[in-house]
Design brief:
Strand content: 5-15%
Shape: globular
Mean pLDDT: 89
Radius of gyration: 20 Å
Number of strands: 9
Oligomer: single chain
Distance between the termini: 27 Å
Helix content: 25-40%
Largest sheet: 5 strands, parallel
Amino acid sequence: MTLGPPSSAFRHRHLLGIEGFSPEEITLLLDTAEGHVEPNRQADKKRSLMRGRTIINLFFENSTRTRTSFELAGKRLGADVINMSVSGSSIKKGETMIDTAMTLNAMHPDVLVVRHHESGAVQLLSEKVDCAVINAGDGSHEHPTQALLDALTIRRRKGRLQGLVVAICGDILHSRVARSNIHLLSIMGARVRVVAPRTLLPAEIERLGVEVFHDMRQGLKDADIVMMLRLQTERMHGSFVPSTREYFHFFGLDYEKLAAAKPDALIMHPGPMNRGVEIDSEVADDIDRSVIRQQVEMGVAVRMACLELLARDLGNGPPLP
């Protein structure tokens, strides 16, 4: 199998965020990912869509799910994949991120997949290299492939995104997952709510077009999707919650709070989970309603789709702006 012609519906050089995408572009990404789901379940998972291409995973933050998912995605498409550990790189010896980018650029990779602890760092890096760049999460800004895999998971179970009531609950303030999901779900016509204590909400969050709740039962009332977020203590400087025990009492998802949602509401979590902090173990493992494991599976298919669509322009003239 070889690369198809450049897609007129996806005209991006990089994948840096969901904000600014059109419904058609999001649908194309989801439809392309859908085509990878079933082949990924077969014994022979290897394809040749990106044979001869080189992907570098450059992670300035630790990650298990995202990095492994991108590595699998690239290898299943037939690409050569290199994982760079910043802990053992020249960054630790004093080299700047831009110097590293220039060094990597001289090696002529086709795609850089980058995770960084500073918001905007991936955008800056994308301006310094010749290859395509995918944002694997930057600070508290965006995590576009997580929002896409969440959307694919929802669409496969509910058949649509438009008109669904989605409650995103927990540490909204520090969550790039929340921001990307708010953008994507709003673009696709879903009704988005955020549920959190005031200390864990960004200022003027309403400007993103969401409904704001500070009570779980009110926020989950008649919700189709309940998306839980972990407390990102590594980004917290100061006291945002009195204690994890009190936080779980008011904002942790258990069956009592879930009863306010629709009987067939789906339970989601981007991981890693803090069981007993933002979600009860029994709820997280509910085989009928929890789609947390499916989210992980869809992650590989979505990242394959992103790599495939960006790769279609490689070798077809300069990348599109």
